[in-house]
């Protein structure tokens, strides 16, 4: 029963209808998953991708939600879960020869970032 008093509290930020391919966002998300809050903010700033700004805004939003809703300190947070999911496609058609239409599927995705903080209650076994 060592982990009885340990609780995991966290908040999330959700980005919907992001007009970008999920694979392009996953290469950034895979880097920041499991990082601390400060490190997760610094990493996207030095990456040369368009999605870095969107990801950093979601990290800031998750930290603000944790601070506002649960009263957590931002320095104690880390990125516990980061997901990118496919959403529907924007369907467009390009004209082709002999009056035909060629479908173009433009991808849309959803990004979920969960920030957590581990709290350890007062346990007698931790003081030794």
Overall domain count: 1
| Helix and strand composition category | alpha+beta
Count the DSSP helices. 3
Supply the CATH superfamily name: Ribosomal protein L22/L17
Give the amount of beta strand, in percent.
35-45%
Sheet bearing the most strands, described? Answer: 3 strands, antiparallel
Average pLDDT over all residues: 84
Helix/strand order, N-terminal first = EHHHEE
Strand order of the largest sheet: 1-3-2
CATH topology: Ribosomal Protein L22, Chain A
Spatial extent as radius of gyration? 20 Å
Report the span from N to C terminus.
17 Å
Helix content: 25-40%
Instruction: Write down the overall geometry.
Output: elongated
Low-confidence stretches: 1-6, 120-128
Looking at the overall shape, the CATH architecture is: Alpha-Beta Complex
């Amino acid at each position: 029963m060592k982990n009885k008093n340990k609780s995991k509290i966290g908040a999330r930020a959700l980005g919907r209808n992001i007009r970008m391919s999920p694979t392009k966002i996953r290469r950034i998300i895979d880097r920041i998953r499991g990082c601390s809050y400060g490190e997760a903010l610094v990493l996207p700033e030095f990456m040369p991708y368009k999605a870095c700004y969107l990801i950093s805004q979601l990290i800031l939003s998750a930290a603000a939600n944790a601070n506002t809703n649960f009263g957590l300190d931002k320095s104690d947070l880390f990125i516990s879960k980061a997901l990118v999911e496919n959403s529907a496609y924007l369907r467009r058609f390009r004209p082709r020869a002999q009056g035909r239409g060629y479908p173009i599927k433009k991808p849309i995705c959803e990004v979920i970032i969960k920030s957590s903080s581990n709290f350890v209650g007062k346990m007698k076994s931790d003081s030794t």
